[in-house]
């Protein structure tokens, strides 16, 4: 039976000049349990952070600039991507810091089953 709409909100500190591991790795929702619409809200603590999103083998975006609003993502300002995925689709999300100091990356996902 498909799960109901859920929200996941990992936050991670990304060290200077480094890339985070997959933020969904090890999560219960790393793989979609049903065909779903996934909505992404993304914010950073300062400018200089880039994010990459893949769903399955499809690159949704690569090295896109993150707003440096320094707060939790809010609707609708920080909801920047919405994409469909089939059952079993792997979610892959990383953040790359290109500055000389650590930055925080806030992410919220709404996963809504469609079948």
List keywords for this structure.
single chain; 115 residues; mainly beta; Jelly Rolls; 5-stranded antiparallel sheet; 4-stranded antiparallel sheet; 50% strand; globular
Supply the helix-strand structural class.
mainly beta
| Overall residue-averaged pLDDT value | 91
E-strand count: 9
Total of DSSP H or I helical runs spanning 4+ residues? 0
Characterization of the model:
This protein has 115 residues and is mainly β. It has a single domain (6-113), classed as Jelly Rolls (Sandwich). The protein is 0% helix and 50% strand. The protein has no helices and 9 strands. The strands form 2 sheets. Strands 1, 2, 4, 7 and 9 form a 5-stranded antiparallel sheet that branches. The chain has a 4-stranded antiparallel sheet with strand order 3-8-5-6, with no helix packed on it. A hairpin with a 2-residue loop joins β5 and β6. The radius of gyration is 14 Å and the shape is globular. The model has no long low-confidence stretch (mean pLDDT 91).
Helix and strand topology:
Elements: E1 6-8, E2 11-14, E3 18-19, E4 36-44, E5 49-55, E6 58-65, E7 79-85, E8 91-97, E9 103-113
Antiparallel strand pairs: 1-9, 2-9, 3-8, 4-7, 4-9, 5-6, 5-8
Task: Summarize the entry for a quick read.
The protein has 115 residues and is mainly beta.
